[in-house]
Automatic annotation (TrEMBL):
Belongs to the binding-protein-dependent transport system permease family. This is ABC transporter permease subunit. GO terms for cellular component: plasma membrane. It comes from Paracoccus aestuariivivens. The keyword Endoplasmic reticulum does not apply. The chain crosses the membrane at residues 99-121, 142-161, 181-199, 234-256, 284-306. SUPFAM superfamilies: MetI-like. InterPro entries: BPD_transp_1_N, MetI-like, MetI-like_sf.
Length: 313
């Protein structure tokens, strides 16, 4: 197990190093000069040069990369060119919205997908299986932003049960949670449909194994064999999808955040790109990539917990 853990930690470190180089390179290749953009087209060349020097844009690219990475390693993500505030503080404020939203959406996704996937797997080839898989196909096909607007029309405009958008902050916990319910549902629906189909397929494959037939021969019903024996062995592909979904929900909710006017990480990156605030883009994307890599690392550890054979590698 120690060797397995050491290999995964080394892979995590190398992934972060490569990701930092790629993120810095891609952002730097974006055309246009941030200093010229901030000052406007009528700015004097001397003023632009002075601002470039102040922003550190006159330094060679390798030196700028080392300064940036050195700051990241010490917890200093730099200062926003636009807002003149520490980037770390801006990201922390936005994470307080994006992370709870992702966790709520993932929890809803699992709560919806688990019974649907197990129900369909217990009735393979029957009408119940066909109906459930048809419903999940519809869930995958529906655009989440369109579904989000339907939720707003129903629960916010007509029923007036939940807010249509905005985020009051965690100083008001109940109001904050209520503001995240609709976006979490909008994000969870397509993810639950995907997860249910994966779970159903994994269970269908597992139910054909010899040990399941043995369990059935000992008197267990199909549903009992599924719950007691098949489910655990079908979890590895499900855990993989869960890790990918959490990464998507954390980093890819920009459309939903804009629909509900949520000040999350996705919206921060979008605003920073439009304002050419490169240091915010670099640091925020690196935080998201680090979160994805960390989730992948935790998924690998979960694999080892589910299947002890992986610990021997």
């Amino acid at each position: 197990m120690r060797r397995y853990l050491l290999h995964r930690l080394i892979a995590l470190g190398l992934s972060l190093a490569v990701a930092s180089v790629l993120i810095f390179s891609v952002v730097e290749l974006v055309p246009g000069d941030p200093a010229s953009y901030m000052l406007g087209t009528g700015a004097q060349p001397e003023t632009v040069a002075a601002l470039r020097q102040q922003m550190g844009l006159d330094l060679p690219l390798p030196l700028r990369y080392l300064h940036w990475v050195g700051g990241v390693l010490t917890g200093d993500l730099g200062h926003s060119f636009t807002y003149k505030t520490p980037v770390a503080g801006m990201i922390l404020d936005r994470v307080q919205v994006s992370l709870p939203l992702a966790v709520m959406a993932l929890a809803l996704s699992v709560a919806i997908a688990l019974p649907i996937g197990m129900f369909a797997a217990a009735r393979l080839g029957r009408p119940g299986d066909t109906i459930m898989m048809g419903a999940t196909q519809i869930g995958i096909s529906l655009p989440n932003f369109w579904f989000a607007m339907l939720l707003v029309l129903l629960f916010a405009v007509r029923l007036r049960l939940l807010p249509a958008g905005g985020f009051p902050g965690w100083d008001h916990p109940l109001a904050a949670l209520k503001s995240l319910i609709l976006p979490a549902i909008a994000l969870a629906l397509p993810q639950a449909a995907i997860l249910a189909r994966v779970l159903r397929s994994a269970l269908a494959e597992t139910l054909g194994q010899d040990y399941i037939r043995t369990a059935r021969a000992k008197g267990l019903s199909r549903s009992q064999a599924l719950r007691r024996h098949a489910l655990r062995n079908a979890l590895i592909p499900v855990v993989t999808i869960l890790g990918m979904q959490f990464s998507f929900l954390l980093a890819g909710a920009i459309i939903i955040e804009n629909v509900f006017y949520l000040p999350g990480l996705g919206r921060l990156i979008f605003q920073a790109i439009t304002q050419r605030d490169l240091i915010v883009v670099q640091s925020a994307v690196l935080v998201l990539v680090a979160a994805v890599i960390l989730v992948t690392f935790l998924v690998d550890l979960t694999y080892a917990a589910i299947d002890p054979r992986l610990r021997q590698r």
